[in-house]
Amino acid sequence: MEEGIHQLSVTIEHASLRNAGFLKPNPYVEISIDSKSTRKTDFLKNTNAPKWNERFTVIVSANSVLHFRVLDHSSFRKDSLLGQQTVYLANILEHYNGVLENLELSMDLLTDGSSGGSSSKGSHHHHHNHEPRQPVKTGELVT
């Protein structure tokens, strides 16, 4: 991928979220590119195993940072974060010799570990520098 801007097609496939109590979440995914241009999937009702299969075309550069957040939609209160993960495009391009064709990424969804024991957890594999506070795996998101 040379310098400049490129269109990247991202398909949010599915996630598996750790069970957190009686109520299942209404999960959706929010993608932001370089802290702007946020896109969202639809939310799905009452599920720990959402399957979205929603495709987004986003504009990126070789150094873009993609931030994925899985949130629980609520009609009555603020949507709560179920887990999140950051993808550094430069690292992936380096790993795959600059070619991103049909790349499936599975990421650990993390929370910052500061919330109480009742918060929901999920997952999604990715290499990461650990913050001092150990992130908590809350589920898995496949893109």
Automatic annotation (TrEMBL):
Transmembrane segments: none annotated. Residues 1-103 form the C2 domain. GO terms for cellular component: endoplasmic reticulum. It holds the Pfam family C2. GO terms for molecular function: lipid binding. PROSITE patterns: C2. It comes from the Eukaryota. Residues 111-143 are annotated as: Disordered. InterPro entries: C2_dom, C2_domain_sf, Synaptotagmin_plant. PANTHER family: C2 CALCIUM_LIPID-BINDING ENDONUCLEASE_EXONUCLEASE_PHOSPHATASE-RELATED, EXTENDED SYNAPTOTAGMIN-RELATED. This is E3 ubiquitin-protein ligase Su(Dx). It comes from Culex pipiens (House mosquito).
